[in-house]
Amino acid sequence: MALVGTLISWFAFMPYFGRRTIYLWGMATMCAILMIIGILNVKTSTHSIAYGQASLTLVWTFVFQLSVGQLGWAIPAEIGSTRLRQKTICLARNAYYLIGVIANVLQPYFMNPTEWNLKGYTGFIWGSTSFLMLVWAYFRLPETKGRTFNEIDVLFAQKLSARKFAKTKVDVFDEQETAVIIEKARE
Description:
By secondary structure, the chain is mostly helical. The protein has 8 helices and no strands. It has 2 domains: 2-145, MFS general substrate transporter like domains (Growth Hormone, Chain: A); 147-187.
């Protein structure tokens, strides 16, 4: 399912939809799936509910690769300023790996019957972190689809709200905007 989600993302989503749009819809869907998994844990004694939780976990994997999983590579490469792009990508990947280590250490404790034994209630924990990321992305993640690196630099220099990136017209040859970017780079 992860491979199919990746291929659909590459060929059907990323060329036609904006990064921000895909990220927000993906994160909202994953949050909902995780919360449903947590809610269903009330009746795990019923085998069909347990199978439903397992199926939702697979659907979550598909949605992750369809949306956020692929954008974890694209967004840091597009967002960083031209001057700081390499450092931005390195910091983003290092943060990803660090969070991955923490999550992979915690997950066995969440699921282990001799430890915290949260079972499906783990969905509430990961669903909450998904919700926090959704809120962050809504306010802070700009749309970069169809923008050149120079246009993105101009939009950041204008201190434009992330939600306005997609609709704002940019003239990269405007001398005043270029002067603002050069001044910001010197600071």
